[in-house]
Amino acid sequence: MDHNPSPIPEPHAKRNPNSNPVPTPTATPPDILRCAYMDIVVTDLAASREFYVDILGLVVTEENENEIYLRSFEEFIHHNLVLRKGPVAAVAAFSYRVRSPEDLDRAVEFYTELGCRVERRAEGFTKGIGDSVRVEDPLGFPYEFFHDVEHVERLAWRYDLYGPGALVRLDHFNQVTPDVPRARGYMEDLGFRVTEDIQDEDGVTYAAWMRRKSTVHDTAMTGGNGPRMHHVAFATHEKHNILYICDKLGALRKSDLIERGPGRHGVSNAFYLYLLDPDGHRVEIYTQDYYTGDPDNPVVTWDVHDNQRRDWWGNPVVPSWYTEASPVLDLDGNVQPIVVREEPSEMAVTVGADGFSYTREGDVEKGFKLGDTL
Amino acid sequence: MDHNPSPIPEPHAKRNPNSNPVPTPTATPPDILRCAYMDIVVTDLAASREFYVDILGLVVTEENENEIYLRSFEEFIHHNLVLRKGPVAAVAAFSYRVRSPEDLDRAVEFYTELGCRVERRAEGFTKGIGDSVRVEDPLGFPYEFFHDVEHVERLAWRYDLYGPGALVRLDHFNQVTPDVPRARGYMEDLGFRVTEDIQDEDGVTYAAWMRRKSTVHDTAMTGGNGPRMHHVAFATHEKHNILYICDKLGALRKSDLIERGPGRHGVSNAFYLYLLDPDGHRVEIYTQDYYTGDPDNPVVTWDVHDNQRRDWWGNPVVPSWYTEASPVLDLDGNVQPIVVREEPSEMAVTVGADGFSYTREGDVEKGFKLGDTL
Amino acid sequence: MDHNPSPIPEPHAKRNPNSNPVPTPTATPPDILRCAYMDIVVTDLAASREFYVDILGLVVTEENENEIYLRSFEEFIHHNLVLRKGPVAAVAAFSYRVRSPEDLDRAVEFYTELGCRVERRAEGFTKGIGDSVRVEDPLGFPYEFFHDVEHVERLAWRYDLYGPGALVRLDHFNQVTPDVPRARGYMEDLGFRVTEDIQDEDGVTYAAWMRRKSTVHDTAMTGGNGPRMHHVAFATHEKHNILYICDKLGALRKSDLIERGPGRHGVSNAFYLYLLDPDGHRVEIYTQDYYTGDPDNPVVTWDVHDNQRRDWWGNPVVPSWYTEASPVLDLDGNVQPIVVREEPSEMAVTVGADGFSYTREGDVEKGFKLGDTL
Amino acid sequence: MDHNPSPIPEPHAKRNPNSNPVPTPTATPPDILRCAYMDIVVTDLAASREFYVDILGLVVTEENENEIYLRSFEEFIHHNLVLRKGPVAAVAAFSYRVRSPEDLDRAVEFYTELGCRVERRAEGFTKGIGDSVRVEDPLGFPYEFFHDVEHVERLAWRYDLYGPGALVRLDHFNQVTPDVPRARGYMEDLGFRVTEDIQDEDGVTYAAWMRRKSTVHDTAMTGGNGPRMHHVAFATHEKHNILYICDKLGALRKSDLIERGPGRHGVSNAFYLYLLDPDGHRVEIYTQDYYTGDPDNPVVTWDVHDNQRRDWWGNPVVPSWYTEASPVLDLDGNVQPIVVREEPSEMAVTVGADGFSYTREGDVEKGFKLGDTL
């Protein structure tokens, strides 16, 4: 087909030259099931509760004056999000569930071999969760692993409690890190598989999507100054649920919390919306990516200049989406220092005087939409 | 309620000072049922056919080498859109259906009294339509009125022919004219009623929506250099139909035809998308406004500085949407000269250095979204 | 087209022989805008409030210990439904809004000429509504006409208040009466127009749909023992809103309130669901019929044996839907006596031993679905 | 909560007494990824092509005069369905993809130890697929396992090719077998996990849902005379896609192909529709179940008398859905003989004189909906 508009599945991309790789441990990595919850620090717990509970409708499993434990409608584990009152808005943990208690031993061994700081608590770091391991990973992110967890009612059938924009699953995390190939190598050692990525003609990687469960990702690595948290994403059943969230924000005169979207992603093929919580933590609302569970699932590599990679409809990405992200904490609760990305930024190579994008590859007559319209 | 986020229905707004009103005829105006079709000149009939038929899925009632007659799925009259091959992309007629044959006599009388050029053809100006009156109206627009029309199959039940983005009704026209209060006075004399408008604190009117059928509008008057055609709008059943059109344009690598949206309008409360056809004629895809058929239907007046008036989610309006529009023809087929708007432009008073907008009225701490993010 | 599956628009059907027609008044009928509200008597106000407010989400405009005034989200008049506590579940009034105060005089004149009992109250019969006329119409139904009404906030933009199954408009009434052609003649004299009907090969009419506003109906006449009220219908924006109502009823373990559906109607082409309120009053939830405002709008006549007329997907109509309906009251609040239908019943001619239906006309090899599967 | 309407997750149900268990092999079972395709025999290839391609819109990967290979829009392997012309409508294979080529050795060993007939073909049994193992399993079903497969274009982004009812994934199989606990024991040995089941107060199991991928099922075992194939299920993105398929069948005057639904399942919480292909093979269209990938995913056990278990809205299950199913073939292509179920049938214990169902457990005043309405 000579005008094939769809992304071409490519053979697994060669890793970019990576002068400072994270060494591959000899230890067996833990068998990670899925991203399970994010533990975030917020500066005004009441304001955050209004955002996540009153506006977005996440379900409160448990709360006290310092912490709120929230879950989505189809979840049966204690929580998918912890709001923790603190002085600096930041991420305390990206937490993954592992298949068995023994996988915690493997996590300790894996990260110990990497020389990372590792802390294990039999009673867990948060309510509702038992034996847990937290590490400062080679990229500077606070990662957690656990298996034991309190089961709570799966509210999937409780339609009497659903709102029009009901969030039904935690879908994924997204992390900002300076060297995406380095991050990818480490994550593949940890057992993740890349499903899609964005590269340029020189082999620079701008972002990569990685999964354990059979969706497009449990987390993504976005190139930029880091370690920082780009966003946490919850899934709805259908697209109209996401549109409703926008309508509700308009009705509440809070439309300025909508940072980007709604729209259709090129990468992942999912429908999306990005919101900013009261501390500026970014939350994605997401629906309808595809099954990726086969070991030879085709990796889709997008050209960074393809103007439909980030938004399939060619709508512009707002600069803040490229530049802003949340700090992450070390295991003592201090903000991790930021390492600057040395490779080109995706924003620079695609927007404005230094960058270019196309709607149709090889089409020199028409530029991309932003250039035509703003 | 002290945080009421919805637009306040206001008593019918006073007409702005209007130094050059169109006189009110003594003649009874024709009883207009609804906007019925638009007759547009396109420069490349094959390219236009691809856009309207292959991409948007309008139904071909009849076609020849110079003209294509198209209708929507729920229509029973011969056409809602005529594509006519010609040298200059422009609008040949905004056509309204009237209640009875006698209303054509009233149309002749009404416009003759106004001193307008009037042409009546018993055989009609387009195929499928009988006795018709075309006029060059006081604002310079080519308006048509007809009653007799060929009935064709209403395809409402023909789901085997529907595509995922099926257009089911012609919804409305939108016209650009320099002096909105002047246009409004004339249109009210013609029997239209205003349902919503945009004003500022000085009483300047930026746009007004006017209806005959019981929807928010059959046409709108948008302040700007005119006479020009801003857009023609078709309705879908549901919002996902509109999202699909975007998805399809992405798949066809024609996402640059998406000018603005999709989004939720503040004005009309409808869900919308704006596309540009191969000649730059703007087409809106629209769904779910509200019933307006009562004579005391509350008029909603929006503040021009309210950043949710044009997009309820606060997403920015691209400048081309404010500045670009299609020429209109006189009854000889010549392009009507443009009169420049003297009052402030909506774009100037709301965007950038000369303008300001707010998400929450009276909220001085946070500006509108564009300012925060670009 | 030789396999045309869509209903064939027919020339306006001849009225069936009607030995006892309602005489046509010489008086001008009132100019009716639309069905506006239904006034129903319920036996347990708290149970009805749970159904209409807690489950269906209608908005309470005003309430006291004996009455609850409810409206839909896009309404700006005081109410669309009155729940009135009383000893017998019945309908106190089918209320229509008229264009002007003078139309009340016309209503009085019209019904007086017909020899009907007429009562006019300057202060209205219900809160929020002024000068009103109530009549016992020639078919035995309590009809009301009013123009003056208190305006309330149109909540169309208040998405913060919408539930997932939000009811946005009162759409129509449906009445049971023994002689449909007789009812049709009277209603046409009152200014209604038929949009669709169901007939058989002998010219028996089983039901007819009639409109004032530009939808398929403001009321329908269903053949059966009457006068009784078959249902009152509210509209949602989209089909998923209706599906949600079913999901919620399941979650509340009240699925037995679902009498029929959801499904697609053949007649009207709308998507539907029928519920029963705690007193057995039938409520339809309805969305997406088509524009009918042109005077020559094609009437669609369905064959009573067409198994897709009532459900486009051929799903069976439960017998209760044919047999059960609510009593109506006279102006003294007594239940109107029932007149038995003499012509064949739709259920008898289509279901079971005495009836037959087809999926494909002329197809003798396959019966209709119910026969195949139960 | 005292009125909890949702199914109560129960501890993993005890297997019913099972006097004739399939022995647990000592061999390691193959690591099954997912149900991958069904190979079915049809008697009229052109009629089947019309159903699966023209009506349902499955994508033709390859076809010849005897076979058609079809896939869904998000699939990247060669096919999800093979239509094979033959004299008797039956199922030739339920095919699963395994993780690695070595898993084929494990499949051979596993079934050889069970004494099953096993056939391995390096060139595969169908086009597009390499080394494959087919077995006559202990329940009499023709199961296939493969890893090597030809990759084809994943059409997920090809919205230009999507119809309004696009099928995007093969979701699951459903098999009829007399002794569900026996089947469950064997399937658990093969590595499947039960997610939901239906039992009665005496511990009789009527059906069980089993998964490898992280959805509610890759296959289900339905109690009845078997081995037979109950249905094969394809997923859509949203519920409106399923409703459209019904609308299209109505437009084509083929509504009698709709056997049951659309509706919401209690079990799985998915939205569903059952169709019958020209040979009577049952096809389910399905969307929106939930993630089940954790090893301690709560099993939901439904009471067979719960009238919302099969349809959350309480709509009746048509008897044919309980009684009809497709034969399955042995490896020589002969129809497998049927073994009669000895335990009570779900239809008998729930419908009619011998059965009872409830909407609210313990509610003796109101029966289930069918009893009230038919």
TrEMBL record, chains A, B, C, D:
<feature type="domain" description="VOC">
    <location>
        <begin position="169"/>
        <end position="288"/>
    </location>
</feature>
<dbReference type="InterPro" id="IPR011981">
    <property type="entry name" value="DHPA_dOase_Mn/Fe"/>
</dbReference>
<feature type="region of interest" description="Disordered">
    <location>
        <begin position="1"/>
        <end position="27"/>
    </location>
</feature>
<dbReference type="Pfam" id="PF00903">
    <property type="entry name" value="Glyoxalase"/>
</dbReference>
<dbReference type="GO" id="GO:0051213">
    <property type="term" value="F:dioxygenase activity"/>
</dbReference>
<keyword id="KW-0408">Iron</keyword>
<protein>
    <submittedName>
        <fullName>3,4-dihydroxyphenylacetate 2,3-dioxygenase</fullName>
    </submittedName>
</protein>
<feature type="compositionally biased region" description="Pro residues">
    <location>
        <begin position="1"/>
        <end position="10"/>
    </location>
</feature>
<keyword id="KW-0479">Metal-binding</keyword>
<dbReference type="InterPro" id="IPR044904">
    <property type="entry name" value="HPCD_C_sf"/>
</dbReference>
<dbReference type="InterPro" id="IPR037523">
    <property type="entry name" value="VOC_core"/>
</dbReference>
<dbReference type="InterPro" id="IPR050383">
    <property type="entry name" value="GlyoxalaseI/FosfomycinResist"/>
</dbReference>
<keyword id="KW-0560">Oxidoreductase</keyword>
<dbReference type="InterPro" id="IPR000486">
    <property type="entry name" value="Xdiol_ring_cleave_dOase_1/2"/>
</dbReference>
<comment type="similarity">
    <text>Belongs to the extradiol ring-cleavage dioxygenase family.</text>
</comment>
<dbReference type="InterPro" id="IPR029068">
    <property type="entry name" value="Glyas_Bleomycin-R_OHBP_Dase"/>
</dbReference>
<keyword id="KW-0223">Dioxygenase</keyword>
<dbReference type="InterPro" id="IPR004360">
    <property type="entry name" value="Glyas_Fos-R_dOase_dom"/>
</dbReference>
<feature type="domain" description="VOC">
    <location>
        <begin position="34"/>
        <end position="148"/>
    </location>
</feature>
<dbReference type="GO" id="GO:0008198">
    <property type="term" value="F:ferrous iron binding"/>
</dbReference>
<keyword id="KW-0058">Aromatic hydrocarbons catabolism</keyword>
